[in-house]
Amino acid sequence: MNYDWIKTRAVFDEEKPAIIDPFKGTEWTYQDLNKRAENLANHLQDQGIERGDVVGIFSPNDVAILDLLFATFKIGAVYLPMNWRLKTQEIESVIQDSDVKLIFYSQKHLSSLEGIADELIHMDVDSKQYDDMVDPNNHRPFKTVHVEKDDLAALMYTSGTTGLPKGVMFTYETFVNNPINTALTYKINSTYKTIVSTPMFHVLGFNDLTLPLLMAGGTLIIQRYFNGEALNDLMAHYKPNYLIQIPTMYYAMLVAENFDLKNFDNIEFLLQGGSAPLPAVQKKFNSMGLSIVNGYGLTEAPLTMVNTPENGAEKPGSIGQPVMFVDYRILNDEFEDIQTGEIGELAVKGNNVTPGYWKKPEETAKNFKDGYFLTGDLAKIDEDGDIYIVDRRKEMIITGGENVLPSEVEAVLSTHPLVAQGVVVSYESPKYGESVSAAVVLTEDDPDFEQKLDAHMREHIAGYKIPRMYLKLTNIPLNSTSKPDKLELQKKMNNKADKARQQDDELA
């Protein structure tokens, strides 16, 4: 079957900018993108790359990421976008596990590949050599190979927040179904423009934003590295129709000095995913007449649920309902469907869901039940059929035998005017096993913030859910996918608790 959709797009689309890169001062039409991909496919074939071989790219947001995707689809190879924010051990794990044959890279991040075999480190995508090789003016036509729908098309590795990254497999069928579903859901068409600021190695920035827009024939503006102030400038210049970002990115835009509501004149919707919403951010946008709607997906199942702008205004905490061609269940511990209002684990099923983990059949079997992927997220459904994510199952805090959902505590914490951002994690407790703590970024400095927050929490939440320790930070540490780094926060909390216990011992 032919999955070479960029070639079809090049045939049907008018000659207009498909990709604009303000950092490099370049722009490419769909016809250019197809020629670049055919040039790269020929190059890969010259290097001995065959159907089924894995080819990686280690780069910030750049047109080269798309060059490689389209080229691998032409040659039948396997596309591997690599997270350059991972730690050395995690990068080495991905390279070893994936059996990658060649890695294209950006020179700025080459040091992160130190120690990797020279024969794997292939070409700098920012070099003249690469530019000349893919240049549409040097076009070398390529005959697209035939692939089957169940052939492996891409490997995308998890962020490694709870261990080493796992390779998530996507067949040609699963990989193209997500952008199709997404484009249909958002009614994206060839007149649309957007800016990709989220990393293109991640499903949110790539599968949910970049590919649906290009599949629909629109125009994509690339921001190489995210910066709130710089994004505001891009907004002013290009006036996009929509944005898809994680909540912390919207926050960075809001607090930047050059934020201007006029930049949103053309905006039809703002979507957030990747992590829990920031209530303060939603409230601020709502006050300006704009709403941010929640979408839901994960590496294993890119965008599966989404709210609407209208429903989002009434139910800002909901992730809405399934997108087209996606089914779901909410299951209890016995894998039985729960009742309305009860909390269980969200399970999803659809053609955009991974068939499993690369070289990990036991892990795959453990995470599927009757064809449904077990997301690890706790959820509930209301009487209208709207779904709410309650928390991650693995992040549930069990203190003194009581279950505490961090998201519930964070929601109450966020209502205090002193709290700009709050993240709730557990720390080790000799008495309770685990205790509740909160890392907070304050709106203003206040020496009595702990007492004020404690009093506030006691008014609104059960005693066992109240944080027993607070940690004031100037910013919340983020992991490789720009989500709050809860493992790092737990370390900080445990260190603070240890110091407090040592002081108590000295005084005893």
UniProtKB/TrEMBL annotation:
Biased composition (Basic and acidic residues): 483-508
A Pfam family of this chain: AMP-binding
Annotated keywords: Ligase
Molecular function terms from GO: medium-chain fatty acid-CoA ligase activity
Ligase is among the record's keywords: yes
Domain AMP-binding enzyme C-terminal: from-to ranges: 408-483
InterPro entries assigned: AMP-bd_C (IPR025110), AMP-bd_C_sf (IPR045851), AMP-binding_CS (IPR020845), AMP-dep_synth/lig_dom (IPR000873), ANL_N_sf (IPR042099)
Family according to the record: Belongs to the ATP-dependent AMP-binding enzyme family.
Protein name, entry field: Putative long chain fatty acid-CoA ligase VraA
Organism: Staphylococcus equorum
Region (Disordered): 482-508
Chain ranges of the AMP-dependent synthetase/ligase domain: 13-358
GO BP terms in the entry: fatty acid metabolic process
